[in-house]
Amino acid sequence: MFSIGRISEKRIVAWKARNGMNILRICLGIIFVWFGVLKFFPGLSSAEEIAGRTILKLTFGIVKPAFSMPILAIWECLIGLGLITKAWLRLTLILLYMQMAGTFLPLVFFPHETFHHSLLVPTLLGQYIIKNFVLISGGIVIGATLRGGKLINVPLPEEKSVKLEKRFGRIRRLIAEKDASI
C-alpha cells in the first residue's frame, strides 16, 4: 500500500512540475485582466479610488483620475493578456513589476488609511495592497523561466527522504505531547 501511494505521489509531483508554471502564469493573467477590466467602469473596482488619488499625488496633481484610470486599466489588461498568451513576456513582466511598485505607494502616501495604530495592523485596504507581494513573487518565478528555466521533478534520494520523515515525525510527536500536557 505504501508503495502505491508513493507512486501516485510521484505522478502528482511530476504533473505539478510539468504544469505548475503555466497554471501560475494563466491565473496571474486572469487576475490582471479581471482587475483591469473593472477599472474601465467607474465605481466597480475596489482599488479605483485609492489608485486615482495615488497617481494624482505622484504626478503632483497633474494627472486626474478620469484620465489615469483608463490608462491603468489598459496597463493591467496588457499585463494580463501578455501573461495568458506569453506574448512579449519579458516586457509584460517589466510592466508587471512597475505596476506592482506603484501599488505599494498608498502605504507611504496614505498610511492613516492603510494601517490601524501601527505597521503591524493593516486595514482591509492595507491588506489588499500587501497581498501584492504574492503577485510579485509569481512574476519573479515566471521570470525565472524566460531563458529556459523550468520546474523539475527531482525526487530526494530515498535515504534522505526517510531521514526527513523521521525528523519531522519526531517533532510532531513532541508537539502533540506538549499539547496533551497543557
In a nutshell, what does this entry contain?
The chain is 75% helix and 0% strand. The protein is mostly helical and 182 residues long.
Question: Would you kindly provide a written description of the structure presented here, covering whatever features stand out?
Answer:
- The protein is mainly alpha-helical.
- The protein has helices spanning about 1-40, 50-60, 65-85, 90-105, 105-110, 110-115, 125-130, 130-145, 160-180.
- Helix 1 packs across helix 8.
Distinctive features:
mainly alpha; 9 helices; 75% helix
> Total strand count, please?
0
Helices and strands, in order, run as: HHHHHHHHH
Distance between the first and last residues' Cα:
36 Å
- Overall morphology: flat
Which spans of ≥5 residues are poorly predicted at pLDDT below 50?
Answer: none
Number of H/I helices: 9
Write the layout of secondary structure elements.
Blueprint: H1 2-39, H2 48-58, H3 65-85, H4 89-103, H5 105-109, H6 111-114, H7 124-130, H8 132-143, H9 158-181
